[in-house]
Write a structure and sequence with these properties.
Layout lengths: L1 H9 L12 H11 L3 H14 L6 H17 L4 H17 L3 H8 L13 H6 L2 H11 L4 H16 L5 H6 L1 H6 L2 H10 L6 H17 L8 H7 L2 H23 L4 E7 L4 E6 L5 E4 L2 H9 L5 E10 L2 E11 L4 E6 L59 E7 L19 H15 L7 E5 L3 H17 L5 E7 L2 E3 L6 E3 L13 E2 H8 L6 E7 L30 E5 L9 E2 L4 E2 H13 L5 H19 L7 E4 L13
Parallel strand pairs: 7-8, 7-9, 9-13, 13-14
Antiparallel strand pairs: 1-2, 2-3, 4-5, 5-6, 10-11, 11-12, 14-17, 15-16
Helix pairs in contact: 1-4, 2-3, 3-4, 4-5, 6-8, 8-9, 13-15, 17-20, 20-21
């Protein structure tokens, strides 16, 4: 209580220079300055009893404040102190000087406001709460903006409805969440036509600044710059600028679904909060656009405002997988036809045979597993978080959609499910926060380079404290001359390796800056083969890739060795290597050393691949020489 009182007393100290120079008052002030609080109290008490009304209203307020301060220093009854402080505040309130008090008090800290004990003053009028809201809105702190919203709502609840002052403070609708701001002025009927008033206020302010004559501007130049025509153009410009700015803040451009008219080659895109748009996309690019629908980027959005409702009038959409840009403009609406099939056929007639079917003497049973794999369920959940651990997870499965010369068999079976489930184990079992995980599927070369740059930047900025896990499921490929292994983005041909991701460059990038450890899992082979046909299967060629020499705290687990392929485990819906990686994490709840994980993968993948796929697949682990003695005891 003492601390709050002291802060509240400081809240009123601004007016100390406002007193007259009367001898009696000066005597009290001198005693006050000499910390003779007993004598000072008597003098201020005398002034209040006999002379207080001869002073101006601000001075009366300060006299009560000073007497309260003396009582505080003398450890007097708190009720007496509060009584004087309340009297001081009520006098200030009477003369409408609370805004000045708020400004002075918050020069040191907005937190002073929260220690006010005079809630009855706030209850008389919401003006004080409104002023407090402005103080918090001016802060750069997000928490203060939340406090600003609370006090603004309290002001409205207390009946404060001065719309001119509400609209005059741009910080309120620039820093408070715009939707919350609109909600408040709607709920409490502060303004009738909310957007028109906000736009008018903004445009008037900008136009007044624009049409002011410059200090060093010649009259002839001013008249050329400011005229009826140019003024109208600037009004239109600032109006559109404000609408676009508000629209960008108030609406999240979340795509919900789309339809494609293949005949007219147009997508109809439906948003969660805005009008649908019609976007021309050539049929040759439509499949890539649709498969990457949730990852599309939007830019250059423009809005119109009709009956207080925002609608998109322009939008550029970028597909990061191939860097194609598609533009929507409300002035150019293409034809779009939704297909509703009407099937006119005869009724289906079924003729049942009366002839018995010949059956074999011996009947065998094949077990077909349908549904989720055992490692896709019952995923252990860690109780601890790992804030300095980061993961980059990539699953490249669909190559055919981006390279027309490939067949569906040359896709990487189950790669997306592999990546998805490894992400869940990283988050739930290893305790890596979701915001620390970069998860991508079916990405092209541009995006692949971006995500490797991102994870490299994380390592750099954590100054040796980072722990990083990299997972890649997809095609790999060797250079036929140098034998260098490459990761293959979905939009890069095996004949254009200069565009692919050199694995040696990835290793160098990840060890450029120090880290605690970097662990890489590669469910890919680099021979030209793959889970199905691979990228070179049509030529029947396999190449033994060169093994990279590693540096730093780097461990690489590869799905296969030499010129072997990385094979699928069809019954489990995963790559053989990934299935046993996930199985070990499931069995150990993520508490596994790299040495024991290495042994487990070698034993299980090698044996099961021979039995199930009738082909050899021996996982291989590559490590840096500098950690040859220590890596086996590291925990994943």
């Amino acid at each position: 209580m003492k601390t709050k009182l002291f802060i509240t007393l400081l809240f009123l100290v601004y007016s100390s220079a406002a007193f007259s120079q009367s001898p009696l008052y000066m005597k009290g002030r001198d005693d006050f300055n000499k910390e003779n609080y007993e004598a000072a109290y008597e003098k201020f008490n005398k002034i209040i009893e006999e002379y207080v009304y001869t002073y101006s209203v601000p001075k009366q307020s300060e006299i009560y404040y000073r007497r309260a301060y003396c009582l505080y220093k003398l450890n007097k009854d708190e009720e007496l102190i509060l009584s004087d402080l309340q009297k001081s505040m009520e006098i200030a309130f009477m003369m409408n000087s609370l805004e000045l008090y708020c400004k002075v008090a918050t020069q040191t800290s907005p937190g002073f406001i929260e220690d006010l004990t005079f809630t009855e003053i706030q209850e008389k009028n919401g003006y004080l709460s409104f002023l407090i809201s402005i103080v918090y809105a001016k802060s750069a702190n997000q928490y203060d903006h939340f406090k600003s919203f609370e006090y603004l709502e309290k002001a409205f609840q207390l009946g404060y409805k001065d719309k001119d002052k509400v609209l005059a403070h741009s910080n309120l609708f620039n820093k408070i969440d715009f939707k919350k701001y609109i909600y408040l002025i709607n709920t409490y009927d502060i303004v009738e036509d909310k957007y028109s008033l906000l736009i008018k206020h903004y445009v008037e302010k900008q136009i007044n600044n624009w049409q002011a004559k410059g200090k060093f501007e010649k009259t002839v130049d001013y008249r050329k710059r400011v005229n009826v025509e140019s003024r109208e153009k600037m009004i239109d410009y600032y109006t559109q600028h404000y609408i676009d700015s508000v629209g960008a803040v108030a609406y999240n451009l979340e795509f919900t679904k789309n339809e494609y008219d293949a005949d007219n080659e147009v997508f109809k895109i439906i948003f969660s909060e805005l009008n649908e748009i019609y976007l021309p996309v050539p049929i040759g690019e439509a499949r890539a656009f649709d498969s990457n629908f949730k990852n599309l980027l939007y830019t250059n959005q423009k809005f119109t405002l009709y009956n207080n409702k925002f609608e998109l009038i322009h939008l550029d959409i970028v597909n990061p997988i191939n860097d194609k840009i598609y533009s929507y403009d409300s002035k150019d609406i293409p034809e779009f036809t939704s297909n509703q099939l009407v099937l006119n056929f005869d009724d289906v007639n079924i003729e049942l045979s009366s002839t018995p079917v010949n059956r074999p003497n011996n009947e065998s049973v094949t077990k077909i597993v349908v549904g989720k794999s055992d490692v896709d369920m019952n995923i252990p959940v860690s109780k601890t978080g790992r804030t300095n651990t980061y993961a980059l997870i990539i699953g490249n499965e669909d190559y055919q959609s981006y390279q027309t010369n490939l067949s569906a068999e040359q896709n990487v079976e189950f790669a997306v499910n592999d990546a998805k489930m490894f992400q869940e184990y990283c988050n739930k079992t290893l305790g890596i926060p979701q915001e620390n995980i970069i998860f991508e599927t079916n990405i092209g070369v541009v995006r692949m380079k971006q995500v490797f740059n991102q994870i490299s930047s994380v390592i750099k900025n954590l100054n040796g404290e980072a722990e990083v896990i990299i997972y890649y499921a997809g095609h790999g490929h060797p250079d036929e001359v140098t034998k260098e292994p490459y990761l293959i983005p979905v939009d890069v041909s095996s004949n254009s390796l200069e565009l692919a991701i050199n694995l040696k460059d990835v290793y160098n990038q990840l060890t450029e800056y120090p880290s605690k450890k970097v662990v890489i899992f590669l469910d890919a082979c680099f021979t030209g083969g793959g889970r199905e046909l691979g990228l070179l299967a049509s030529r029947g060629v396999k190449i033994k890739p060169k093994e990279n020499i590693l540096t730093g705290n780097l461990v690489v687990f590869s799905a296969s060795s030499g010129n072997q392929s990385a094979l699928p485990y069809f019954d489990k819906g995963h790559g053989m290597f990934t299935y046993y990686l996930l199985k070990k994490l499931q069995e150990t709840s993520g508490r596994v050393s790299l040495g024991s994980l290495d042994e487990y993968l070698h034993q299980n993948v090698s044996v099961k691949s021979s039995i199930i796929n009738n082909r050899e697949q021996n996982p291989h682990t590559n490590i840096s020489k500098s950690i040859s003695e220590s890596w086996v005891s590291w925990e994943l």
